[in-house]
Amino acid sequence: MRGAFDDVPLTTLFPRLSPADVESLEQTASAVDEAHADEDAAEWEWALDHVVFPGPQPCTPIVLGLDVIEHADGGDQLEFLLQVVWTDLGRLAVDAVVNVACWCDTDHASHDVDALRLVVGEETSLPRAFEAAAERLIGWLTDARDADFWRARAALPPRQPA
Predict the structure, then answer these.
(1) 119 in Cβ contact with 93 (< 8 Å)
(2) Which one, 5, 6, 87, 102, has the greatest CB density within 10 A?
């Protein structure tokens, strides 16, 4: 499902959230939406079928996420992700990732050039992990929105001319 963060059924996705936790997530998402404001409204995605841990999967089961994609001429792409996911061990984690299209001789499709993963547990609550990952994402969104900038930071090959 997709929509504004106000449409996200937080207490259905995360039944153990307190009202204060819900408010914290909403405030954090509002800050992310504001950082993304120079474009179309942020469209959050959520998966009700991932509310309960689905067991280890070949790909990461995403519960809630935001994907900000920047396209450039010649098929280039830069992605900023903020996601609440299940780990293979059945714990929630919050991921923030910058991803660029691959221009290596061997096509890897894409590369994560910066990433943060915070596993939710006794020491880190979901709202705190979400806030920390969102702060990282907001910082990235204020940096250059140019895939070549991010490739250079990660020492990846530059985009090949079309």
Answers:
(1) yes
(2) 5
